[in-house]
């Protein structure tokens, strides 16, 4: 008897498609605007993971035709200096998106810096104004990872109407905004987290599980309903017995592959969609200026 294998929700392929769409929009619009869209990614310090993420974002910008105004600051840069940089970028007409790469050195107040960004240039969709627009169901720049998850589900024509969805994770980056987006799509949403008692009893009856906690292998086959949809937002670096380092998600991939109907791979699932939505937000902000 052949073992059934879940269908993959391929974020890498979809991100490539979005890059091509954005590239076409930019080509058609930049003559009218007299410039390309501009994204400023601000990084402080020498975190190797952050540096890799920033390089990835800058490469993606180049690919679609977004001008990159990235700036890298020394670890000792002060809160006041960073606020001045953001204030200048808010006024710079070449810049459509601003992103502060997290984490920041401990002496900097990340929330205060994010709040200084003009909400209409908030490429990460994390400003309180944009989160408020999401709560109210109004148009606005959306948090990149949750928006990426929703776009991925849409691409595979997965209806959320009336579905029981469990979001495992309650962060302001993913869990909370994603729950609101799912509600907007008429899903019935439960938010669980790392301290939920008997997590398996909560997830077992769900039509869809979205794992976003940052714990390798948290969701196992016994915790999911056969034929459900599993979206793995977790990105964790683990070292195996041979000393090899690799990326894994919050879902135990091998065991769930034969139980789920759809599943996202790690890497290659939600990760590429996050960057695609960052570019999408920047282009959305750029197009608003065309209309005005």
Automatic annotation (TrEMBL):
NADP(+) binds at residues 169-171, 235. Coiled coil: none annotated. GO terms for biological process: L-histidine biosynthetic process; methionine biosynthetic process; purine nucleotide biosynthetic process; tetrahydrofolate interconversion. Signal peptide: none annotated. Residues 9-124 form the Tetrahydrofolate dehydrogenase/cyclohydrolase catalytic domain. Its EC number is 1.5.1.5, 3.5.4.9. Pathway: One-carbon metabolism; tetrahydrofolate interconversion. GO terms for cellular component: cytosol. Residues 143-288 form the Tetrahydrofolate dehydrogenase/cyclohydrolase NAD(P)-binding domain. InterPro entries: Aminoacid_DH-like_N_sf, NAD(P)-bd_dom_sf, THF_DH/CycHdrlase, THF_DH/CycHdrlase_cat_dom, THF_DH/CycHdrlase_CS, THF_DH/CycHdrlase_NAD-bd_dom. It comes from the Bacteria. One of its GO terms (molecular function) is methylenetetrahydrofolate dehydrogenase (NADP+) activity. Keywords: Amino-acid biosynthesis, Histidine biosynthesis, Hydrolase, Methionine biosynthesis, Multifunctional enzyme, NADP, One-carbon metabolism, Oxidoreductase, Purine biosynthesis. It holds the Pfam family THF_DHG_CYH_C. It catalyses: (6R)-5,10-methylene-5,6,7,8-tetrahydrofolate + NADP(+) = (6R)-5,10-methenyltetrahydrofolate + NADPH; (6R)-5,10-methenyltetrahydrofolate + H2O = (6R)-10-formyltetrahydrofolate + H(+). NCBIfam families: PRK14186.1. Catalyzes the oxidation of 5,10-methylenetetrahydrofolate to 5,10-methenyltetrahydrofolate and then the hydrolysis of 5,10-methenyltetrahydrofolate to 10-formyltetrahydrofolate. Homodimer. Belongs to the tetrahydrofolate dehydrogenase/cyclohydrolase family. This is Bifunctional protein FolD. The lineage of its organism: Bacteria, Bacillati, Cyanobacteriota, Cyanophyceae, Nostocales.
């Amino acid at each position: 008897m052949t073992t059934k294998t879940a269908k993959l929700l391929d974020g890498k392929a979809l991100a490539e498609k979005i890059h091509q769409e954005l590239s076409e929009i930019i080509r058609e619009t930049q003559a009218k605007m007299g410039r390309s869209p501009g994204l400023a990614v601000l990084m402080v310090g020498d975190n190797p993971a952050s540096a890799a993420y920033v390089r990835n974002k800058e490469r993606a910008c180049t690919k679609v035709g977004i001008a990159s105004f990235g700036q890298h600051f020394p670890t000792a840069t002060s809160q006041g200096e960073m606020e001045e940089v953001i204030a200048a970028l808010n006024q710079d007409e070449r810049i459509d998106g601003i992103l502060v790469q997290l984490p920041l050195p401990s002496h900097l107040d990340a929330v205060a810096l994010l709040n200084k960004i003009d909400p209409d240039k908030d490429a990460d969709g994390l400003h309180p104004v944009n989160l408020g627009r999401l709560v109210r169901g109004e148009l606005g720049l959306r948090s990149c990872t949750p928006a990426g998850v929703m776009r991925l589900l849409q691409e595979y024509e997965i209806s959320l109407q009336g579905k029981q969805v469990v979001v495992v994770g309650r962060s302001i980056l993913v869990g909370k905004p994603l729950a609101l987006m799912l509600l907007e799509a008429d899903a019935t949403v439960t938010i669980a987290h790392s301290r939920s008692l008997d997590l398996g009893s909560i997830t077992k009856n769900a039509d869809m599980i979205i794992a976003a906690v940052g714990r390798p292998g948290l969701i196992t086959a016994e915790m999911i309903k056969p034929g459900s949809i599993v979206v793995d937002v977790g990105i964790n670096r683990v070292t195996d017995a041979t000393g090899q380092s690799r990326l894994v998600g919050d879902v135990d991939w091998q065991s769930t592959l034969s139980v789920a109907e759809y599943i996202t791979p790690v890497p290659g699932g939600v990760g590429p969609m996050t960057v695609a939505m960052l570019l999408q937000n920047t282009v959305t902000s750029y197009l608003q200026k065309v209309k005005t």
